Amino acid sequence: MKCPKCNHIENAGGNFCSVCGEKLTSIPVVKQGIPVWMIFVLIICFVTLGGLGYGFWDYYNDNQKASGTSYKETSTIPNIQQVSTEEIKKKQENYKQDVDRVALIKEVQQKVFTVLTNSAQGSGFLYKQGGYVITNAHVVEGEVDVAIRNSKGQESPATVIGISDRYDIALLHVPAYRDVKPLEVEPRESPVGLEVIAFGSPKGFENSASVGYITGNGRDIELDKFIYKQIYQIDAQIDEGSSGGPLVDVQTGKVVGINSLLYTSETKTNFGFSIPLYSMLEQFDAWIAKPLAAKEVLAVADVYNYSPQTSVDTDAILAGQFVQAFRMYYELALNEGDFYWIADMLASNSTAYRELEDYVNDITGDGHYFYFTNNEVLDVTTSNGNYLVYMNETFDFYNAQGDYQYYDRYKTYTITTDSNGAFKISNIKIH
């Protein structure tokens, strides 16, 4: 024991210090604590185990996220190119312009129709509230009861209520579109150099849209006893079947003309002509105010004799065009992160609907950009009442870090029709 006064160490068993005589008391022995080195070892073990656990959790989470969506437009490719920030910005600016243009095309196409008669096929567009459709006179000559087909393949009956024996214009009334908002029209002359989009069904290819420019105006042409006054010359591609379709200003979305004539030559340098809509508005409004009787419409056919266009079976072609149109809106859905762009083109509760909805939502906000470069229809067949559209599709892909990848894909689209006869995509198979 240790003396509390002089600190002298006494043998155990004594009651007083042999040096100073101080009374001794028992002092509890303090046990030695855990060595410092062992504490450090334990800390290192805990940190290591925690890191391994987090790594496993993160890996498991990523795998779960990756397996949550079965449809993927992109996949890992070893050859990745780095793209500069300036190039990405340029691509994004070009893409915004394309978005505006594509949105305009989608809006206008809902109000552009294929005009069907017993012997001819042309185009038309919705004009003024009440269900009035403008077309060319030579498309509906000798007809009173005709039909129109919209961009989804739905047909509606129409009646010719106005037709001219001097100008190549006619007006239809379609009760089914009485409450649909019509296209806006340009009430003034349009200048040379104006960028325009020609809509219609050239050679039976419905829902077509071709971008070009007004390359000339102020021309008067007389053909088959029709007078085309101050007609616009355009370089946008049109063909037989485009007649009656609208020519639309890219910037305003207003209709500036009625596509009517095609000039062809042995050099294959073709261009079209479009009737200035502003110059015919008075006549169209007069027919709306006072429609022609059926006998008056038929009487016009005796005034001129125009060789009608040949109708064609376009069912398979339409299915292919529907898929091509879908690809245009699918690009928007991917880049905008908005499934809305394609939702109405997919069969409800179908595999295609579920997989594409999951995929678009999964990549939303990741900063990816898709640039579709080719959508080629290779073949169209039928199976069990459905169309099978075989496609070759190519596109450029940029991720948020600027890495670039090129894709070349082959796909098969299964196309069904709903109760209204409209096309819907039910399945997409990537080969």
Tell me the layout of helices and strands.
Elements: H1 36-67, E1 81-82, H2 85-109, E2 112-116, E3 121-127, E4 132-135, H3 137-140, E5 145-149, E6 155-163, E7 170-173, E8 195-200, E9 208-223, E10 226-234, E11 246-249, E12 255-263, E13 271-276, H4 281-289, H5 294-300, H6 315-336, H7 340-343, H8 351-363, E14 369-383, E15 386-398, E16 403-417, E17 423-430
Antiparallel strand pairs: 1-16, 2-3, 2-5, 3-4, 4-7, 5-6, 6-7, 8-9, 8-11, 9-10, 10-13, 11-12, 12-13, 14-15, 15-16, 16-17
What can you see in these coordinates?
Strand 6 (155-163) and strand 7 form a beta hairpin. The chain has helices spanning 36-67, 85-109, 137-140, 281-289, 294-300, 315-336, 340-343, 351-363, and strands at 81-82, 112-116, 121-127, 132-135, 145-149, 155-163, 170-173, 195-200, 208-223, 226-234, 246-249, 255-263, 271-276, 369-383, 386-398, 403-417, 423-430. The protein folds into 2 domains: 110-312, Thrombin, subunit H (Beta Barrel), CATH 2.40.10.120; 315-430, Nuclear Transport Factor 2, Chain: A (Roll), CATH 3.10.450.50. Residues 27-31, 65-69 and 303-313 have low confidence and may be disordered. The chain is elongated. It contains 8 helices and 17 strands. Strands 2-3-4-7-6-5 form a 6-stranded antiparallel β-barrel. A 6-stranded antiparallel beta barrel has the order 8-9-10-13-12-11. By secondary structure, it is an alpha+beta fold. The termini are far apart. It is 27% helix and 32% strand.
Name a few traits of the molecule.
Thrombin, subunit H; 431 residues; 6-stranded antiparallel β-barrel; single chain; alpha+beta; 27% helix; Nuclear Transport Factor 2, Chain: A; 2 domains; 6-stranded antiparallel barrel
